[in-house]
Amino acid sequence: MGGQISVRGVTHVYTNRYTRETVLALEDISFEVEQGEFVCIIGPSGCGKSTLLYLIAGLMRPSMGEILVDGRPVTGPGPDRGMVFQEFAILPWRTVWRNISHGLEIQGVPKEKRDEIVRHYIRLIGLEGFENKYPYELSGGMKQRVALARTLACNPKVVLMDEPFAALDVQTRITLRTELLKISLQLSNTILFVTHSVDEAALLGDRVIVLTRRPGRVKEIVRNPIPRAARDEHTMENPAFIEYRNHLFYSVRSEVQVAEHEALVRG
Ligand SMILES: Nc1ncnc2c1ncn2[C@@H]1O[C@H](COP(=O)(O)OP(=O)(O)OP(=O)(O)O)[C@@H](O)[C@H]1O
Ligand SMILES: [Mg+2]
Q: Which of 17, 49, 89, 152 is least surrounded by Cβ atoms within 10 Å, i.e. has the fewest?
């Protein structure tokens, strides 16, 4: 179905439009993501993770380098890439059903086909019985399930997720991450998932890209020792997984510590 991503030598500089001050957010980022792969991105706060996702989404253009999806340069947003944000990106005046069908309506999918797709995703995210509820009647976890279904319903080749579970309490977050892992086994979409949580990245990602402190560069790309289909909540107890998770933890931790030290020296 496609969804192969190539990021080649991407550097991004933000320029303040009034003061002309610049911030180098990303520097010379290169990596490849295979179609259907689930890749997580972790790194210290402010290292450019969201920036990288926005660039791939086509919401901004990189200062240098290029991004290709299935060999075609990204020049703007497109239906081949769908995004799920940290804040609930659902429409408060539409029911669960009509939120999930929204993108399909925009695409002009006929009602019968639309209903079939919406029904499928309602089942996938376990919200049967809530079809006619409005967002204010849902818990945070349910709202984020709807946001996910809304994006998946349009079947983008690439799903870009920026801290989608960050606003949830710890237990709900663990539930949703396990659900997403299960759901992903039924999907062929490529998933790029940004998170602060090392545990989340370690569990979800087939590979994890670790970024350095700002300006974000690729520090390392590590492959999960446990295949996706064999991962579940109990994977946390697997010694090979623990070693992998700890490796990721210290990889990010050392970046944060260097950044803190540098800030201290600068005063
Ligand atoms: N619109 C903007 N204008 C200027 N600087 C920006 C802008 N957006 C982000 N930045 C800066 O670029 C850097 C990277 O920001 P970004 O939001 O991509 O980081 P992040 O890794 O997603 O951080 P977090 O983990 O806290 O979400 C930061 O130093 C930030 O201050
Ligand atoms: Mg961010």
A: 17
Please choose from 12, 13, 14 the residue to mutate so as to test ligand 1's pocket, defined by most ligand atoms within 8 A of CB. Answer: 14
Query: Does residue 164 belong to any structural domain of this protein?
Result: no
In a domain, 166, yes or no: no
Nearest CA to ligand 1 atom 4: 14
State both tokens at 139. Answer: 């818990």
* Domain that residue 132 falls in: 83-155
CA of 248 to the centre of ligand 1 (A): 22
- Closest ligand, as measured to the CA of 46: 1
* pLDDT tier for residue 220 given thresholds of 50, 70 and 90: very high
Q: Is 187 exposed, middle or buried (0-12, 13-18, 19+ CB in 10 A)?
A: middle
What is the spatial distance between Cα 217 and Cα 201, in angstroms, rounded to a whole number? Answer: 18
Ligand number nearest to the C-alpha of 214: 1
In this structure, are 248 and 182 located in the same domain?
Answer: yes
Mark whether 10 and 92 lie in a shared domain: no
Residue 264, C-beta contacts closer than 8 angstroms, at least 6 positions apart:
none
CATH label of the domain that carries residue 40: 3.40.50.300
For the beta sheet containing 38-42, the strands, ordered from the edge strand earlier in sequence to the opposite edge, are 81-84, 158-162, 190-194, 38-42, 207-211, 218-223
Best-predicted range by mean pLDDT (66-80, 88-102, 138-152): 66-80
Say yes or no to pLDDT of 253 above 90. yes
Residue among 23, 45, 85 to mutate when testing ligand 1 (max atoms within 8 A of CB): 23
Residues with CB under 6 A from ligand 1: 14, 23, 25, 45-51, 196, 214
Kindly report, residue by residue over 23-48, the tens digit of the pLDDT.
999 999 999 999 999 999 999 999 99
